[in-house]
Amino acid sequence: MSETSQRGFTPTGTISTPKDRRRVVFATVVGTTVEWYDFFIYAQAAGLVFAQLFFAPLGESMGIILSFLTVGISFLFRPLGAFLAGHFGDKYGRRIVLVITLILMGVATTLVGLLPTYAAIGVAAPILLIVLRILQGVSAGGEWGGAVLMAVEHAPKRKRGLFGASPQIGVPIGLLLASGMMALMSVLAPGDAFLEWGWRVPFLFSIVLILVGYYIRRRVEESPVFVELAERKERTRTPIAQLFRKHALLVFIAALVFAGNNAVGYMTTGGYIQNYATNPEGPLALERSSVLLAVTGSAVFWLASTWVAGWISDRIGRRTTYIGGWLLQLVGVFTLFPLVNTGEIGLLFTGLAILAVGLGFTYGQQAAYYAELFPASIRFSGVSISYAIGAILGGAFAPTIATALVQATGSTWSVALYLAGMTVLGLAATLVLRDRTGIPLGPDHEAEQAKSPIYGMARA
Description:
Blueprint: H1 3-7, H2 18-48, H3 50-54, H4 60-76, H5 78-92, H6 94-113, H7 118-121, H8 124-154, H9 160-188, H10 192-198, H11 200-204, H12 206-218, H13 224-231, H14 239-265, H15 272-278, H16 288-316, H17 318-340, H18 345-361, H19 366-371, H20 379-393, H21 398-409, H22 413-432, H23 446-450
Helix pairs in contact: 2-4, 2-6, 2-8, 2-9, 2-12, 4-8, 4-21, 5-6, 5-8, 5-20, 6-8, 6-12, 8-9, 8-20, 9-16, 14-20, 14-22, 16-17, 16-18, 17-18, 17-22, 21-22
């Protein structure tokens, strides 16, 4: 009997005890929450203060655009993080990658909180800000794939969607915490105090979250699928080369699925709505803390719908859940700005909450969906790189594009049409792929996993 069998692992990637499963779910939720809290804190600050503090000489309009561009620049380095994490994750395991990416993200975020402004050190300030944002991008590109595979590969076959939703809900929880911390500091340090020091506190708080996340992730067992691959000595030496040689088209289509969700999601996670609604030179000029509280509240709807989508996908399939989610997201896209533009905080919250439901139903099932697309030996690389490319095509420059569209047209309808187009693109990519809900994930079934899920193709 192999060591894998003695531990209670099965070839399908499940583990024996409910206690172990609960530990995995808890660890992926906490770790992903910490990662995305750090990532979103930056985006929140980019929409609220970075234009004044780091790009002031360029003027209000150009400062905002460049501030949002620093959010997008990090996405260009996500593939680097995905390539590195995929390579080492497929060769040496999922857990070690998760620990390293968590530390990298936390260090970068904390240093942003200590960074001098343009007034203090001149052009070095925005340069250092961009460097730290790039490090966040590298970390984010590597973290997600490891987290979702730890969750899905430990899951019982019929609960992959539910287990896979655990790292997914870390994203809305991270948004909730990030918006909540910014809202709290807006109250504790109003006006000039927020610009002087209040915005720094949420960044510095990251060090506490990193210590908690590190402790929890270190206690989680390695993925059973990877353990089995390692024992059989079937780990691929060049997983990325294998991925693109056999599955390049699948990577691109899978990336488009995520792009459709990510572009729309970055209206809030990328700080666009926060800036649009609070800009004193804009049409609304709403109070900062009220807008941040509305975003925080909408994150609760995103969290709930993400969890429900993962659960439902185990019953009706990932593809069907996605199709329904795209339709809900389209409704959210076309109701968002009419409600936001009323200037009423309650209606702004309503618009964000409706959008959040659609976002959840195009996100909760993604972890299981991606994991079921790729063979075990190159799964980390496939999942991570598809996600990173989708983030570039989707959310990377969505706030910048939205800002430029409004400045060019004078209307938010142009933004709604752009977001609707991205939603339809995600739907089209979903329709191209077969449903693989419940496909075996272990190395015994590599041949079945290698069959292309793309309609009209026998193999990738």
